Amino acid sequence: MRLLRDKKGVVRVIEAFLASLLLLSCLALIPAQPNLNDSTGNLASIGQNVLLSLDSNGHLATMIDNRDWSDLQTSIESALPLTDWFNLTVYNENMNILNPYSISAGGLASDKIVSLDYVCASQNSTYVVYILQLQLSQVGST
């Protein structure tokens, strides 16, 4: 009999039930996050990390200043996984190609190619800006 007279408890239960229905309906309407394990996104982040690590102490710009293309190719090859193909083109500030031959590793691995641009500056007394275009592909990616 006492439970029937205590209307405050019933109202709180109904309020909690409606609040939970509201939260569940909001969660159902929110779209799912895109898949972060996408190989193109992974390749782009790998390429960006390689260029950032080479440029962290100015080593990248020094290799370009000295036109040491073989050392640049070896550095990128050693930083990338063995299953990755790359092609690097170095431009000056006027978008003229600086490397006289292709800086790449092997042949094209797949039809799915990720291209990213990276800007680095020379640390010499003369300020020179270089634009690097790195193209990456992974063996077996479809």
Describe the structure.
With 142 residues, this protein is an alpha+beta fold. The protein folds into 2 domains: 1-30; 39-138. Helices cover 44% and strands 20% of the residues. The protein contains 5 helices and 4 strands. A 4-stranded antiparallel β-sheet has the order 2-1-4-3. β3 (114-121) and β4 form a beta hairpin. The protein is elongated, with a radius of gyration of 27 Å. The model has no long low-confidence stretch (mean pLDDT 82).
Mean pLDDT: 82
Helix content: 40-55%
Per the principal axes of the C-alpha atoms, what is the gross shape?
elongated
Strand content: 15-25%
Structural class: alpha+beta
Q: Give the C-alpha Rg.
A: 27 Å
Tally of domains: 2
The strand line-up of the biggest sheet is 2-1-4-3
What's the count of strands? 4
Instruction: Give the distance, in angstroms, between the N- and C-terminal Cα atoms.
Output: 70 Å
Instruction: Point out poorly predicted stretches.
Output: none
Largest sheet: 4 strands, antiparallel
Number of helices: 5
Strand and helix order: HHHHHEEEE
